[in-house]
Structures are given as structure tokens and as C-alpha cells.
Sigma-54-dependent Fis family transcriptional regulator
Amino acid sequence: MDLSEIQSVKNRFGIIGAAPALNYAINVAMQVAATDLTVLITGESGSGKESFSKIIHSLSVRKHGNFIAINCGAIPEGTIDSELFGHEKGAFTGALDARKGYFETTNGGTIFLDEIGEMPLGTQARLLRVLENGEYIRVGASKTQKTDVRVVAATNVNLLDAVNKGKFREDLYYRLNTVPIYVPPLRERDEDVLMLFRKFTNDFAERYRTRPVRLSPDARQTLLSFDFPGNIRQLKNIAEQITILETDKEEPIDADTLWRYLNPVNPSSRRTVSQALVPLSLGEDATSFSEREILYKVLFEMRRDVTELKKLVREVLKDEQSNHEILKNHQDLFDNINPADAPVTETSRLLAAHEERLSNNARNDSSSREYTPASRVVDLDRYSQARSQIEDVEHIAEEEESLSLEDQEKDLIIKALRRNNNKRKYAAQALGISERTLYRKIKQYDIDE
Ligand SMILES: Nc1ncnc2c1ncn2[C@@H]1O[C@H](COP(=O)(O)OP(=O)(O)OP(=O)(O)O)[C@@H](O)[C@H]1O
């Protein structure tokens, strides 16, 4: 194993970590890239499987061909055949034109089939055929076509279990598994946790124009002992939350504060570091725990946002109302205030920063706004509106509290979908869950899109 070559691949693909199991997996990917073999990447959700498919494509002779990543769990069962293999005009209701599938458009390149365990059995039969001899048939066609595509597949479920349950074809499993690559979970890469945390907090500090957080020795131990059911994706989310919410960057983050981010559902449960090693969800499988924990975290974050926002607006209202009193009693004096001399309170500074982030339009408008007593009265109207909006938010938050966890989950998903124009990919990103999980939840809760 040439460690310097492995390091250069890590640099090129932004892979952080030095755990031997990670180096081994990268080495296998580098070796297999040059061949045209089918590769199956296994590893828990969020462990970083996608980069491996890119390494394999980029270091192969197909590097100038197309690379396409498809999440099999995110495509509805009724359309996956047509997406992958294309269809003829009139093949089904709504097929107004013939359409090429990904196996046709990626001819000469690589297809990454993520969440392969979610592929319906009928599609598995078509995939096996294309893997065996490059042949496929468009939906609704009778003519066989040929393509030359390399397949890299990934799964975060045990495919042999799926084979035993009759959900996955055994012949396809062995065909895909020609070369397996195992991406280790974060808890098996102790030495990488601190390195990744530092990298993520530095990157987010740069993005949000703040200083990177530091961890106390106890907090570092807590991070090292945590299980990370959501793996690197979870660590990255936590690093982002801490960077934004822990505004006091003078002191290092202590273990209790860090624990609130690691376990927002039950923040008071941390007593000793060793307790962090105890499974948190006996009786629940790791996947459902990780999804639930992530959704809890979203809820927690929303609550915290609402609380922060309420605090902010109350402070601004207080400031503005007392200024309004002064304005009434000392109109003459106030008229003479030079805008440049006006005190800038911390809350108004925060609000301004918040406004700036929220809307470019606001930034454009602000240049035409003048700081006069009249405009401050108008501002009071704006803050009254803001107050009533906050009351609405409080009302919604109260309603949310009265909902069951399932209802809250459903509600969150509906809101995320609406906010993202029903684009599942972006809604899933906003919720911090995979597209496959989102798709399953949409079906589970029977959500209309
Ligand atoms: N070694 C790493 N260094 C830096 N970032 C990483 C590393 N591994 C993963 N990430 C980041 O973690 C996130 C999750 O990784 P990725 O999407 O590849 O996981 P996955 O195993 O494909 O998950 P899923 O099975 O849910 O699709 C991504 O934002 C990715 O950039």
C-alpha cells in the first residue's frame, strides 16, 4: 500500500481521515478502478460511500465518459425501469415521447447505483441482464439494445439478509459483489473523529464568517466515545450547529455543552463519559434510531431557532419601544440626531446581520432607507407585525407540542417538501436524512406531493 498515493487521492477527493480501515478501502478502490469490474460498496449510512464511486470512475479509463449517481430508493417503483432503461412512446399512460434511460445516456461511462437494496425485483432482473452481456430493452419496446456501462453499487443494508428474505436476487448479489469495498463506520475510526471535527468546524467557521470552536479535553473525550449512528454526516451536522449556535468562541466548548448537540433528545442523560458508550436505543435497530435521532434533532433545532428568534424580537421590541417613548417626549431633540451618531445595539446589529443573510432584497432596500424619526415609527409598525408573526410561530410551536411524534415527523416532512417545491432531494437535505429515507417516510405517512 503506497501511503503517499493514498494521501494524494484523499486530497483530490476531500477525504479526511487516517484510519487503517479507511486507507485499506481507498487502496482497494484505486486498484480496482483500472479494471472494468463491478464494485459493491458497503457501509452504514453517512459513512462516505459516495466518494468511493467517484474515485473508481475518475481513476478508470472511463474518466472522460459520463458519471451518473442514482439513488434507487428515491425513484418510485413505477418509474425506475423507464428511468434506467428508457421507454418507447405510448409505453404507459403519460409516455408522450420515447425517452432514453441512464444506461443509454451513460454509454462508455459509469453508473453509481446507490441504495441498491431498494431496487425492485423486476428492475433487478433487467440490471442482471445488462451486467451479464450489456443488453437491455426499453420499456414498451421489443428490440434489444446494447450498452457499455460500468456499474458501481452501494448499500447500507446487509444484502445477504435481503437475499434470505427474498427481496434481493442471489445471482445479482454475487454478480455485483465481484469486488467488495467496506467503508468503516465512524465509531471504528476513533483517530479520525477529532480530525474530521476540526476540518468541519474550520470550514463552517469560514462559511459563516466566524471563529472556529475549540473543545475542552473533556469534550474531546466525549466526542471520541460517542457512537455516531449517523456517521460522518451526523458529525458534520453537529459541527455546523455548534459553529452557528455557540457564539462565545473565547472559551472552549465543555463536555456538557457538546453533549446537548450529540444527544438533543435527552441532553441531561450525560453523567459519565463511559455512559456515552451504552447503546441509546435498545430494542430499536440502528437505522431507525439514526433516522429518528436526526428528525428529533431537526425538531430541536427548529425549537431553538424559534426561541432565539423570539428572544431577539423581544429585545428589539423593548429597545424600539423605549426609543419610541423618548421620541414622543423629546421630538425636537430626536429630530437633531445625526444617523452616524446613533447607538448600535447588539440586538439591532444581530437583527441586521440576520436580515442580510435572509434576503438580498433587504440588503438592496437598506441603502434607500433613511434613519429619521419617521422611519423609526414605520419600523415600529414592522416590529408590531413581527410580534404578531412571533405569536403565530408560538401558536404553531404549541400546536406542534401537542402532536404525537409521528404527526410531528409527518408535519416536518410536509413543510420541508413545500419549502423545497416538492423536490425530494432538497427536502431530504434540509431534513438531514437520505432521499431514500424521505421516500420511505412519504410512503409511510401517505403524503401527497
Ligand atoms: N472522509 C470524509 N472526509 C470528509 N467528509 C466526508 C468523509 N466521508 C464522508 N464525508 C461527508 O459526509 C457526508 C455523508 O457522506 P456520503 O453521502 O458519501 O455517505 P453515504 O455513505 O453515501 O451515505 P448514504 O448511505 O446515506 O447515502 C457527505 O457530506 C460527505 O461529504
Summary: The chain has 20 helices and seven strands. The chain has a mean pLDDT of 78. The radius of gyration is 27 Å. Residues 187-280 form a domain with the Helicase, Ruva Protein; domain 3 fold (CATH 1.10.8.60).
